[in-house]
């Protein structure tokens, strides 16, 4: 119906699944690709404000006129299919097909595709032969769909593995890693699942630090995975800069890689948004126990850099300063357990020595 069956195998795709960090990993990968001069399509979910955020062209939400062109073309094709007796696709299936259609039509060099839920049965798994697959950190989420154990969850995530497509993952819990390796073994001879090198193995040639565009210690392994995904893609379609492989083999991060990682912007993930003087918002979309703990560690580090703000009462020798007040704004979907998430957040704040002055629960 969407007329992409013949063209889809020719679309260069990087496919990423996982419980935590898959969006950030895709954003890092997208930025490295663009820093190397590639024209990139990036499909992600969910969106924060505008549905066009799900379809990025060269780092920006798809322009409205481009989105509307592809939306109405796909919608009209869907209507024809319904009239012929086909089932109308649900929202995620529709937007996935719209993304693939748009990326093909707009002539991107590469499409970075983030899995929605799971992997094996996810709509994005229509991708026939990715250049590379990545699996980020695994944890307990969507257990009503993916299963109640890490073994089951990992099995669903590994459903994106394809024979002939190199697969990479970050260090995992023992149970999750064993399940991923078991799935990899079933792929047949020649298929290999590799664990990416720790971020600590990389350094700049001049030894200056790489300040990731998405902050937080938990983002380091996502950056390492992004480096490896681009490295494989570049081996097929590059090299953009001769000598990069030699540098990487020596543990040196090429400058364009570092620049791409530093320029990465991913709204709603460890994001600091300045507002009026003396007010800053620290935003993160954490929604599992593990990611709430990581969020607390990031907030502890990031908010610790804040100076005390505003003028207090006048005292002998000068004006006192008010202590910075920390207010928690908390919102969640009704399908999640607030006690579990808030419990993880509270324990992590306590461990980091972070005191929350007020909490506001936002419907």
Give the secondary structure arrangement, pairings included.
Layout: E1 13-17, H1 22-35, E2 40-43, E3 55-57, E4 60-61, H2 64-83, H3 91-105, E5 110-114, E6 132-135, H4 143-146, H5 150-157, E7 167-169, H6 174-185, E8 193-195, H7 219-237, H8 244-249, H9 255-263, E9 271-274, E10 280-283, H10 289-303, E11 309-315, E12 318-322, E13 327-330, H11 338-352, E14 358-361
Parallel strand pairs: 1-5, 1-6, 2-5, 6-7, 7-8, 13-14
Antiparallel strand pairs: 2-3, 3-4, 9-10, 11-12
Name a few traits of the molecule.
single chain, 363 residues, alpha/beta, 8-stranded mixed beta sheet, two-stranded antiparallel sheet, 11 helices, 14 strands, 38% helix, 16% strand, globular
Describe the structure in brief:
This protein is an alpha/beta fold and 363 residues long. The chain is 38% helix and 16% strand.
Task: Describe the 3D structure.
There is one protein chain. With 363 residues, the protein is of the alpha/beta class. Helix content is 38%, strand content 16%. The protein has eleven helices and 14 strands. The strands form four sheets. An eight-stranded mixed sheet has the order 4-3-2-5-1-6-7-8, sandwiched between helices. Strand 11 (309-315) and strand 12 (318-322) form a beta hairpin. Helix 2 packs across helix 3, helix 5 packs across helix 6 and helix 10 (289-303) runs parallel beside helix 11. The two termini are 40 Å apart. Residues 308-317 have low confidence and may be disordered.
